[in-house]
Amino acid sequence: QVQLVQSGAELKKPGASVKVSCRASGYTFIDNYIHWVRQAPGQGLEWMGWINPNSGATKYAQKFQGRVTVTRDTFINTAYMEMSSLRSDDTAVYYCARDDPIMAAALTDWGQGTLVTVSS
Amino acid sequence: EIVLTQSPGTLSLSPGERATLSCRASQSVRSSYLAWYQQKPGQAPRLVIYGASARATDTPDRFSGSGSGTDFTLTISSLEPEDFAVYYCQHYGTSWSSFGQGTKLEIK
């Protein structure tokens, strides 16, 4: 079955960077885009961007342009989301999710989430 | 950027009742790319409806989606205890995506 397994929780200081991984299994990694979505405590879902694992092409929400970089390693079926210049309001659970072109690019499978806490 | 506005913010109903959740877009969107997700506390979201009206795998038939243009609706015909959760609509454009702010469906 499809699985997206994310790296563990992170505690970072303001101004630092964080890199979250998302390891995929159960399907052909390069066939589906991987999206990143975050959720601040008690808040809603916020789309951050996607990567096409086949080509490496990326798209980001305007809010995250220049501060977020999404990459992938096709040899180990893993996508990464790196965020720099962290602020306290970046404290959130970060999810990776796979979209399915057959289901109109909806996000059909999600990772378990990675809590990133930014605090001095 | 298209903004999705969901209403109501909170909906209080009893099991067995009908739930109607609304998602309004700031401009017309392709219904093919409108989805609904369910999220329970401490869990990742789960896809419920895609393409505005198609049920995802394992979504019970009491869930239905409808709408086009700027107005979309998620209907749960007869609420079961496990349906009480937060629901988000999402639109996916050619190179971007956005979520509504969510509707919390709570037990009355």
Q: What's the structural blueprint in terms of helices and strands?
A:
The complex is a heterodimer of chains A (120) and B (108).
Chain A: E1 3-6, E2 10-12, E3 18-25, E4 34-39, E5 46-51, E6 58-60, E7 68-73, E8 78-83, E9 92-100, E10 106-110, E11 114-118
Parallel strand pairs in A: 2-11
Antiparallel strand pairs in A: 1-3, 3-8, 4-5, 4-9, 5-6, 7-8, 9-10, 9-11
Chain B: E1 4-7, E2 10-13, E3 19-29, E4 34-39, E5 46-50, E6 54-55, E7 63-76, E8 86-92, E9 97-99, E10 103-107
Parallel strand pairs in B: 2-10
Antiparallel strand pairs in B: 1-3, 3-7, 4-5, 4-8, 5-6, 8-9, 8-10
What key phrases describe this protein's structure?
heterodimer, A: 120 residues, mainly beta, 7-stranded mixed β-sheet, 4-stranded antiparallel β-sheet, 11 strands, globular, B: 108 residues, 3-stranded antiparallel β-sheet, 10 strands, 0% helix, 56% strand
